[in-house]
Amino acid sequence: MGITQDGRITACDFEAITPGGAYASFGVVTAYYLGVFMPLPYKLDNYKFEAKRLYTNHPPCGPKRGHGAIQPRFALELHIDKLAHAIGMDPAELRRINTVEENSETCNGLRITSVALKECIDLVKEASDYDAKKGSLEPNRGIGLAASAYMCGALHPIYQNEMPQSAVQVLLDRSGSVAIYAGTADIGQGSNHMLAALVANSLGISPEQCVVLEADTGLTPVDLGSYSSRVTFMAGNAAVDAAEKLSETIRSAVATKWECEPTDVVLADSIAKHPSDPERNMPFEQAVILAESQKGTLSAVGHYTPPKIGSRFRRQSVGPSPAYSFTAQVAEVVVDPETGITTIEKIWCAHDCGKAINPVVVEGQIEGSVYMGVGEAMIEEHTFQAQGLHRAPSILEYKIPTVHDTPEIISLIVESNDPEGPHGAKEAGEGPQLATVPAIGIAIHDACGIWLNEAPFTPEKLLRALERQARRQNKAAK
CATH code at 206? Predict the structure, then answer.
């Protein structure tokens, strides 16, 4: 990378080699993702990357949370810190002054809408008391900060056509209940509640009045799936589109009865009301019956198709994205130089999710992301025997963090209100994980002065690095 003495990043030349098993699977996409998002979250005018996906005598690999972005983010964030040390600048400030701006475009054509990374950095610094702790903690205790960005769904569909990528059908019953038909898959991320909350907000009712029916295309409109953090942004926009059509139908019917304009009718608190005339109001279910009497069965389908953005990528088939989320994390660790064991005391994570439709769910996504990042940083490792057999082929051998290994996680929500997201929302399902591993690695360096350039940061690797450091220091002293 190139950098000026005042901390402006000027260029980056990035190379990645990824072994992916005996079959291609998503390997080509992974190789693409390894480099295409590197010009985020920092301004980068000159950029080159080369990625090679190798066929190897290993089981085939597939995409996972943070697909293709975690590994290069680890490398880049550690390198950013090394650059900051080289020019004598605070690493947090170096990141802050190079943050991409809203309504801008990266050197490789990624369109940026909303950005709140500076706010994320400031928030985690304040919450963790970063400025007071950095470089001044007791020996073998350190603190590190890292940042990241992630996509809100792939701009280009996995099927090359011009049809919508998400569609949602909303059906109103005369009882006032709402059925939402969606092809999304709620795998624990809370997408069903998200759809209910968005539809309820547009209709002025409670989410409890909505039932989400998720199924295949035998029952629901097409949705391309729960991947690439696309559901909130794309299916959410489709749900809002459908609900707003129904809202307009109901308000029009009520306005006809009240002999006023539809814009004079407000749907809120499960009531249709006229703001300037308290006598004009009716329960939501009565308004639905009135609308059904005038218009017939009340149903609407909403859809979402991403905007056409750029054409810089030759034979482009995946990515980029209609919007991007941003994250900043601070990790505080304690290193035992006798055993090589690193204890993570606390992690603060501030995530720009655009708008938190359900803050509790967003906090849960942040905590889950950080937890998985802790596993990748400290415990989880794929190693193979000479014949290509996995050394840890089951959960008995492949260790993941338990409650005893997981630090206290402080989730901080930052809202940038994206102009194209559903009510301003962006993703929160994958982006918060990307900065965890480098934040821990940087904190280890702050604690004992060594760079561990390979994760996980096992006791064996740390002890070997400390031994190398001691030999260098002894040689220099002589």
Answer: 3.30.365.10
Indicate whether 43 and 118 sit together in one domain.
Answer: yes
Question: Of 445, 329, 333, 440, which Cα lies nearest the Cα of 82?
Answer: 445
Q: Both 329 and 409 in a single domain?
A: yes
The predicted pLDDT at position 418 comes to 98
159 belongs to a structural domain:
no
At residue 160, does pLDDT exceed 80? no
d(C-alpha 204, C-alpha 187), whole Å? 27
Crossing angle, helix 236-258 and helix 191-203, to 10 degrees? 20
Helix ranges (DSSP H) in 91-179: 91-97, 117-128, 130-133
Structure token digits, residue 327? 């994250």
- pLDDT score for 269: 96
Alpha carbon separation from 409 to 48, 123, 227, 396, 461 (Å, rounded): 36, 14, 25, 26, 25
| Residue 317 contacts residue 259 (beta carbons within 8 Å) | no
357 pLDDT exceeds 80? yes
The DSSP secondary-structure symbol of 393 reads -
Q: How far apart are CA 188 and CA 112, in angstroms?
A: 29
Is 160 within a domain? no
State the pLDDT confidence band at 472, using cuts at 50, 70 and 90. Answer: very high
C-alpha triplet 59, 64, 70: angle, nearest 5°? 105
Domain span at residue 244? 166-304
Q: What is the SS3 assignment for 321?
A: coil
Average pLDDT, the chain: 93
Element (H, E) at 169: strand 166-172
Contact between residue 462 and residue 335 where contact means Cβ atoms under 8 Å apart: yes
Q: Are residues 322 and 464 in the same domain?
A: yes
Q: Which of 304, 336, 362 is the last residue of a domain?
A: 304
What per-residue confidence (pLDDT) applies to 58? 85
Number of domains in the chain: 2
Same domain, 277 and 180: yes
pLDDT in tens, 429-468: 999 999 999 999 999 999 999 999 999 999 999 999 999 9
> How far apart, in whole angstroms, are the C-alpha atoms of residue 240 and residue 303?
9
Residue type at 102? E
Q: How far apart are the first and last CA of the chain?
A: 34
Residue with tokens 């407000």: 266
pLDDT above 80 (res 157): no
pLDDT of residue 315: 53
Residues 114-141, mean pLDDT to the nearest whole number: 96
318 pLDDT more than 70: no
pTM above 0.85, yes or no: yes
What pLDDT is attached to residue 62? 84
User: Which of 279, 304, 329 is the last residue in one of the domains?
Assistant: 304
Q: Are residues 381 and 422 in the same domain?
A: yes
Dihedrals φ, ψ of 235, to 5°? Answer: -65, -35
Assess contact for 196 and 212: CB atoms under 8 A: yes
